[in-house]
Amino acid sequence: MQIGSISGSNRTSLALAVVFGLIFVLVAWDLLSDYGEGVNRLHVLIESAVLLISGGAMLTLLVQLLQHRRRLNAMSTRLASTREEAARWRSEYREVVAGLAQAIEAQFREWQLSSAEAEIGLLLLKGLGLKEIAGLRGTSERTVRDQAQSAYRKAGLAGRAELAAFFLEDLLLSKDLRS
Questions:
Q1: Alpha carbon distance 147, 167 (integer Å)
Q2: What are residue 35's phi and psi, to 5 degrees?
Q3: Which of 19, 61, 150, 179 is deepest in the core (most CB within 10 A)?
Q4: pLDDT at position 36 over 80
Q5: Do 148 and 138 share a structural domain?
Q6: What's the maximum distance between 2 C-alpha atoms anywhere in the chain?
Q7: Contact (CB, 8 A) for 163 and 121
Q8: pLDDT for position 6
Q9: How many distinct helices (H) and strands (E) make up the chain?
C-alpha cells in the first residue's frame, strides 16, 4: 500500500459509511412522509431507531476514516523526514561507507568466498532475511541457507551476528576506547 492511498479496509469503511448515509436519508425521507399521514407510533419509533443507528454508524465510520487519514499523513511526514535524514547521512559519510564496502570486499576475498557467498554475505549484512535474499536472487531459500553456512564456515564465524560484529565491532567502540 502506498502512503496516502486508500487501503482495502478503508474502502470498505467508506462504502459502509455511504450505505449507512443512504439508509439515513431514505429512512428520514420516509419518516417525514409518514409523519403527515398519521402512521402508528410503533412504526415511527422503529424508523426513528433505524435513523439514529444508521446516522451513528455513518458518523462513527467517517470519524475513523478521518483519524486514519491523519495517522497516514503523520506517517508520510515522518517517512519523508527519515528519508531526508538517511540521504543526508549517506552524503555526509559517503567516503566512510565506500571505505567500509571496500574493506568488506577485501575481507571476503581473503576468506575466499565465492561470488554467490560474497553477495549473500553483503545482503545478510544489510539485514535481509534468507527468504528475501532467495527472492532477490531467484534461488531457493535452502540454497541461500547453504551458501550462507558455507560463507560462515570459511570465515570461521558462527552465524549472522558474528558476521555483522566482525565488521562493526571496532566502529562501535566507546569514546574512551577510541582514544
A1: 19
A2: -60, -40
A3: 61
A4: no
A5: yes
A6: 95
A7: yes
A8: 58
A9: 8, 0
Q: Indicate if the alpha-carbon torsion angle 127, 131, 134, 135 is positive or negative.
A: negative
CA distance 147 to 153: 10
Give CA–CA dist 128/97, Å, rounded.
Answer: 18
- Is the Cβ–Cβ distance between 102 and 30 less than 8 Å? no
Do 157 and 99 have their domain in common?
yes
What count of other Cβ atoms lies within 10 Å of the Cβ of residue 140?
12
Is 75 part of any domain? Answer: yes
pLDDT tier for residue 3 given thresholds of 50, 70 and 90 = very low
Q: How far apart are the first and last CA of the chain?
A: 48
Same-domain check for residues 86 and 117: no
Residue 70 corresponds to which cell in the numbers above?
491523519
Query: In the numeric block, which cell numbers belong to residue 172?
Result: 562501535
What is the tally of structural domains in the chain?
2
pLDDT at res. 1: 41
Q: Which runs of E-coded beta strand occur in 66-143?
A: none
Amino acid code (one letter) for 87: A
